[in-house]
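tool_call: predict_structure(chain=1)
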Amino acid sequence: MELINNAGKPPAGHYSPAVSSNGLIFLSGILPARPGAVDFADEVGQALNSCKEVLAQAQCTLDDVVQCTAYIVGVENWPEFNRVYMEAFGRHKPARTVVPVPQLHHGCLVELQLVAARRP
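tool_result:
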């Protein structure tokens, strides 16, 4: 297992931002950089940008993502999540699960967990 850190942004807890094993990159849950800064869509965009940063440390992009699990506060935010997610991923459609939850750490409205595959 290879540990992958996000340069300049060490984790606050006992975990790695991502690990690589057998050609797969597993991103830990990624929260928005500034929860509550603007609105739900902004938080989703921030979380996706942070995911891109971690993926880049593993020489990957969103196009390498094969699976996404999204935890969102409030099922009513699902359409807005889907809109921002579609803008970020474009025609690429990894497997995805969206889980509405009552709350997340630090008052965040979204948390993303990704799996990517390194290209040979």
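agent: The radius of gyration is 14 Å. Proceeding to next step.
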